[in-house]
Structures are given as structure tokens and as C-alpha cells.
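Hey, can you fold this one?
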Amino acid sequence: MPTSDAEELCMTKAQYEVFEALNPFFEVVMEGLRGLVDGDHYFDTIAEDAFFEFRYHFPGWPLTIRGRANLIASFSGYGKAIKLHSGDALAVHRSQDSRVVILEYEVHGRILSNGTPYDNRLISVVTIEIVHWRDYMDSLAAWTALNGPYRS
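Sure. Predicted structure:
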């Protein structure tokens, strides 16, 4: 039985509740990508086969992640260790390559185990690709331009 948009939205909100501690990250990134991507939540904007590359070496963290499901899994433990309270300092830069947008931003929170402040500055270089395209074209106009007036 198909679900309504309202039911689907509720399922999405419930599905992402486990990531609530990271909402300020999701919100600042989504603000930076506004008008450039589809989806209501950060994870909804990620293609199934997306490729994530991390340009630093950090013990226990992979240098690459392939796919939305693996990205979601990699974020699953954050809320147990870090609680963000804000995301700010957003600067959005458009590249000469119109598919690329560069986001600069900061996130702020606390380490849950000891209360230590957590402040991180990030730059994300995002490649936005077309994954679906729908054209409505006047085929007769194209045929007429190539072949002259249509005669039945």
C-alpha cells in the first residue's frame, strides 16, 4: 500500500532521530546547498553511490566512504560522543565548474564523556551531478525544422 507524503515525511523524521546530535551540521550544510540539491535532510541529498573522500589521516576513520548507506552508518555513533549545539560561519563559493560548490562552515558542541568544548572548522568541496532529467519537447517542431511542413 503506497504511503502519503505526510507519512513518508514522518518516517524520514523518525529514521533520522538517532542523528539529532548532529542537526546543526546538517542544517548549516543544507543552508549552503539550498537551491542546488533535492531532499529535506542531508542524507536525502546524497546519491546512493556517492563517493566521500577525507583528506586527512585520523585513526579509526576511513580515507574514503562509498555509498549513502555506508555514510549513514559512519555517522551512527557520533551522537554517543558529541552533541552539537550550533553550526555557523557559512560561506558558499561557486566554482568555475558549475557542478562544484565549496562550503566553509563551523560546528560547535560538547564532548559528552567529559564536557570539553568541541569546535571544528570545515571546508567541503561538493560536486553536484544530475541524476535525473526530464525534458518536454515539441517533437513536431524539431521534425518540421529538419524536414519541412508535416503532411499527412
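The beta strands are 51-53, 64-66, 82-94, 100-111, 117-127. Let me know if you want another pass with a different chain boundary.
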